[in-house]
Specification:
Elements lengths: L2 E7 L14 E2 L2 E2 H13 L4 E5 L3 H4 L9 E4 L7 H15 L5 E6 L7 H14 L3 E6 L2 E9 L3 H5 L7 H7 L4 E5 L10 H9 L10
Parallel strand pairs: 1-4, 1-6, 4-5, 7-9
Antiparallel strand pairs: 2-3, 6-8, 7-8
């Protein structure tokens, strides 16, 4: 089964004070790490990277990777705007993928294996949405089957994938992923990441 991947990297990192996408962890930027993970999991299916505030700054990290980079002009309105930009870009490439996985660039412990677990759970359960679960949070990375993409396209620009998960809990299966709680929004979280400490769940979505 073909699974496309959308990597959301459009934010301005206002809380961090520098581009989180370009922070280094284990010898790679967070952006490069996320996109390489996406490419590995997609296994030849399309990968779309959605930029926004920092389009030009991020391009050098992606020039040699088999991905489509698109800039969301309305990125400041919210994650929903970036999601819909990514979906539109995917449709412009092809319609041969059965599922779409959405990931962020600031969850450094997301691996191709985690994304493959989302796909396996989709196949096993028949549920059209499969979300990572950490603490009390259901969120990204998250898989959407083609049958629910109209719902995803209908979310507001200000909303993230979490809106859909909350509105349609009966459609959602989950994959336990405790390390999904680790993200990087503040200097303190980045320092904790470099120390190997896991912050509490933040509700990334």
């Amino acid at each position: 089964m073909s699974t496309a991947v959308i990597v959301l990297a459009a934010g301005s990192s206002s809380r961090l004070g520098q581009p989180k996408q370009l922070l280094c962890y284990e010898g790679q930027t967070l952006l490069r790490r996320a996109v390489e993970t996406a490419v590995a999991a997609a296994a030849g299916a399309p990968v779309v990277v959605v930029t926004g505030a920092l389009h030009a700054e991020l391009l050098p990290e992606l020039t040699d990777l088999p991905v489509l980079v698109v800039q969301c002009s309305t990125w400041a309105e919210g994650m929903g705007a970036s999601l819909k930009t990514g979906l539109t870009a995917l449709q412009s490439l092809c319609n041969t993928w059965a599922t779409v996985v959405v990931i962020l660039c600031d969850q450094p412990y997301v691996t191709a294996t985690v994304l493959e677990q989302l796909v396996a759970t989709y196949l096993d359960t028949g549920q059209p949405i499969v979300a990572a679960e950490y603490g009390a949070v259901r969120g990204v990375p998250v898989l959407f089957g083609a049958e629910v993409l109209p719902l995803l396209r209908g979310i507001s620009n200000a909303a993230g994938a979490a809106q859909l998960l909350k509105q349609h809990p009966q459609l959602v299966a989950t994959v336990p992923f405790a390390a999904g709680a680790v993200d990087v929004d503040t200097p303190q979280q980045y320092a904790a990441l470099l120390r190997g400490e896991a912050p509490s769940p933040t509700g990334n979505s």
